[in-house]
Write a structure and sequence with these properties.
Elements lengths: L4 H7 L4 H7 L4 H27 L5 H35 L5 H12 L1 H11 L9 H27 L10 H5 L1
Helix pairs in contact: 3-4, 3-7, 4-6, 5-7, 6-7
Length: about 170
Amino acid sequence: MRTDCSAHAAMNPMTHYMELLATNQPWQLLIFMAVPVICAETLAISELIVLYTRKLDGLARRVNRVTGIFAGLYFLGVFVYLLLNVVIPLTISGGWRGPGDVIAVGFYLSGVVPFLGMASLELGIVGRKLDENGKLGLHATFVGIFLVVAHIAMIFGMLDPSLFIAVPKAAMEM
C-alpha cells in the first residue's frame, strides 16, 4: 500500500529519525543515538588530546584507537539493520514524510562513512602509506565529518517533516 507523503506527514509530525529514537524507550535511543554519540564524543576528546600532546602511545591514543574500531563496526551494523528494515521498506512503500525526513535519515546513515573510515585506518586497511601526521590528520578529518553529518541529521530529524512539503496555493485559500 502506497502512503501519500503529505497526508502521512500531516498525520505524524515527526520524522522517522525522531520516531526511531522515541519508540521502544529507552532501548532504541540507546542503540541508535547514545552509543554512536558517546563514541563520537570519546573520539573527539581523545583526538584533541592526541593532537595536542602528540603522544602516540598514551592512554588517549589507545582509547581513541579502540573507540574508532568499535564505532566503525558498530555503526556498520546499525547501517545495515536500518537500511534493510527501514530505508528499503519506506522507499518501496512510499512512506517517507517528505524531503526533511529523507535528509535526516540519509545524513544519519551517512555517518557510516567516517566511522568505517576510522576503523579502516586503525586496522591498517587504508592509509598504510601515510606517516603518523598523515594518519592523525585523516583520523581527525573522519571525526569532523561524523560530527557534521550527525548534527545535520539531528537538526532535520527534529523538524516537523511537513515544513518541507509544498502545499498547493488553492489548498491554502480554503
